[in-house]
Structures are given as C-alpha cells and as structure tokens.
Design brief:
Order of helices and strands: HHEEHH
Strand order of the largest sheet: 1-2
Radius of gyration: 26 Å
Number of strands: 2
Largest sheet: 2 strands, antiparallel
Helix content: 25-40%
Structural class: mainly alpha
Oligomer: single chain
C-alpha cells in the first residue's frame, strides 16, 4: 500500500486549493447518494464489460501461443480423457490414439485438472485423444530454441515444455 499510495498522496499535496469548499452547502443525503444508478451503470456495465472482454481476449491469445486454438478451449476442462504413460510421445500420424498407449484402460480415464500443476506434465494432445491434430496449432516458441528465453519455453515447476500443457 505504501508504494502505490505514495505518488497519489504527493500529487494531492501540490493540487490547488478549492477556496470556496467551506462555503458550499453539504450534500443532501436523501437526494445525493454516493452510489447511484449512473455510477453502477458506468462501473459494471461499461468498464466491467471492457475489462471482461480484455481478459478473455488475453486468455485466448496466450493459450493460442502455447498451442491451443481458441475454439478448442470451450468446455475442454469437463472432457474426459486418458492419462498417457510417461514414455508416450505425441504423433499426429498415429491415429486414433495419437501415441497414447493408455487409451481404453479404465484406471487412466479422468478429467484433466486445469487449475492445479499436478497435471502440468501431461501433454494435452495425448490426453484429449478424441480431438483431431487440427484442433491444436504449433507453439509460438520452439522448446529447443535457445535464442528464446527459457521461461517462455520451459516450466520452472515441472521442468518440461509449457506448450500443450495446462501449466
């Protein structure tokens, strides 16, 4: 709070004084409400909609950079899939399982947890084996490109590539 409040407080110190402030009548508490329809309309309907749209746009752009097409993301967290084996590697030519050897094994069927890093190691292309390879796109950054900073390519938590994961 100290860091964010300091600059506005200093600006108030240099603001010109309102000479007639003590001569004005106080507001009528029955008529002049602090929170009125105009304020609520502006705060929630106008600014809120712009902020929500900006948040969704940013979400879809970032996940697009990491391999998920925006149209693929709708209701993806509720879809069931099969957790791949640690040695499974994604192969777009290996239809219909794309390289997941656990497809059809009931013990490995579950939903991918998008809000935890527990499933951050799972390649979503292998997990969602019902999706086509065209539902995903190439990542913006090649995981092996050393000219790109590593925090865009490799996760600090799982130490694996970030593309196509829930991390």
């Amino acid at each position: 709070d100290l860091g964010t409040d300091m600059v506005p407080a200093i600006s108030f110190a240099y603001e010109n004084a309102e000479l007639d402030i003590m001569e004005r009548m106080p507001r009528n508490s029955k008529r002049d409400h602090l929170v009125n329809v105009k304020l609520i309309s502006f705060a929630y309907l106008q600014i809120g909609m712009v902020q929500a749209a900006s948040g969704f746009y940013t979400y879809f752009v970032i996940l697009n950079d990491y391999g998920f097409r925006p149209g693929t993301l709708f209701f993806l967290s509720s879809k069931e899939g099969y957790f791949p084996a640690a040695t499974d590697v994604y192969d777009p030519e290996a239809s219909p399982n794309w390289g997941n050897t656990n497809v059809g094994v009931k013990e490995f069927k579950d939903t991918l947890r998008w809000n935890y890093t527990d499933d951050g190691r799972v390649d979503a292309r292998l997990f969602y084996n019902t999706l086509k390879p065209s539902d995903f796109i190439n990542c913006r950054w090649n995981p092996n490109d050393t000219e790109v900073p590593s925090f865009w390519r490799i996760s600090w938590i799982t130490n694996k590539q970030i593309c196509y994961t829930t991390e």
